[in-house]
Specification:
Blueprint (H helix, E strand, L loop, with lengths): L22 H18 L8 H9 L3 H7 L8 H8 L1
Helix pairs in contact: 1-2, 1-3, 1-4
Length: about 80
């Protein structure tokens, strides 16, 4: 008996054309979110907001968008409205 294996690959693509947020705005929003989350759940091992900002500055716009964990349900616009 020959078995058949079906592999499904889901690719996440982000359309950056017509981007209405700058890299700096994305970084500011991510740092704001980071500060908010760390304030509520402090861990001395976590980077400071300044260290986190430096890490975010190394990322591309596509990677920054990925860091927001946004999707069709919680959109990038909602994220930016909440954290900018």
């Amino acid at each position: 008996m020959i078995g058949q294996v079906v592999i499904s690959i889901v690719m996440h693509t982000t359309k950056v054309l017509d981007m209405k947020y700058t890299k700096e705005q994305l970084i500011d929003a991510l740092v704001h979110e980071w500060d908010y989350l760390c304030h509520d759940d402090y861990d001395p091992e976590d980077p400071t907001p300044e260290e986190y900002r430096k890490d975010m500055e190394e990322l591309t716009i596509e990677q920054l968008i990925e860091e927001t964990s946004t999707d069709e349900i919680y959109t990038l616009d909602e994220f930016m409205e909440n954290h900018l």
